[in-house]
Amino acid sequence: MLRVIAVLLLIPLLDAILLAVLATQLQALSVVVIVLLVVVTALIGMLLVRAEGRHTLRRIQEKFATGEVPTNELIDGGFLVAAGAFFLTPGFVTDFVGLLLAVPVTRAPIRALAKRFVITPYLDAKAKGFVSGNVYVGGFPNQDGPGGPGAGGPGGPGADGPSGGPDNPGSGPSVSGGSSGGFDHDNATDIDFEETDDE
C-alpha cells in the first residue's frame, strides 16, 4: 500500500519537472501553448473515459443478467475512475498514465498484472488463502504431537501393531493418542466395528 502511495506522489512530481523543463528549454513553446496542450489532452481523455465507462457499465449489466460475476469489468471501472483523476490533474505525465488506463488495449495487461500482484494477494491475506486456494492441506496442525502419527497414525502402534491392527484383530480396536480412545477408520475391520458397537 505504501508503494502505491509513493507512486501516486511521484507522478505529479515528474509532471512538474517535465513542465519546468519544457518551459525553460523549449523557448518556442510559450506558457500559453503548454497550458492549451494540457487542457486539450485532458478534455480528450475525459471524453475517452466517458465512452469507455458507458461500455464497461453495459458489460457489467450483461454479466449480471447472465448470472456471472463481472470481476474484470469492476476492475476496469476502478481503472477508469483512476484515469479520470489522472486526466483532471494538469500535466503530461498524468495524462499519459490516464491514457494507459483508459485505452482497452493497454488496460488489459495492466488489469492482469494488478490481479496477479495486487488484488489476489490482498484478498488472499484477508481470506486466509481461500481466494487462490492456497489453504492449509497438510493435515491437522501439531500432528506429530501426542495424537499424531507417532501415537496412532500410520506406522504407529495403533495402525498395524499388536494393539488392534489387521494382524491382531482379536485384541480390540486400535487406540490412538494414549488416553483418547478410537480406531483408524481406514484400517478397521468388521470385527473392530462390532466390538465398538458392543462397547
Measured by DSSP, the beta-strand proportion falls in under 5%
* Largest sheet: number of strands, sense, barrel closure: none
Spans where pLDDT lies below 50 across 5 or more residues: 155-166, 168-180
**Radius of gyration of CA atoms, rounded to a whole number:** 32 Å
Number of strands: 0
Give the H and E element order: HHHHHH
- Please tell me the overall pLDDT: 75
Per DSSP, the total helix count is 6
Tell me the distance between the termini.
Answer: 60 Å
The secondary-structure class comes to: mainly alpha
Q: Roughly how much helix do the residues carry, as a percent range?
A: 55-70%
Dominant shape: elongated
Question: Which terms would index this structure?
Answer:
199 residues; mainly alpha; 6 helices; 0% strand
Walk me through what this model shows.
The protein has 199 residues and is mainly α. The chain is 61% helix and 0% strand. The protein is built from six helices and no strands. It has helices spanning 2-25, 31-65, 71-88, 92-102, 104-127, 190-198. Helix 3 (71-88) packs antiparallel against helix 4 (92-102). It starts with a helix and ends with a helix. 16% of the residues are buried. Mean pLDDT is 75; it is low at 155-166 and 168-180.
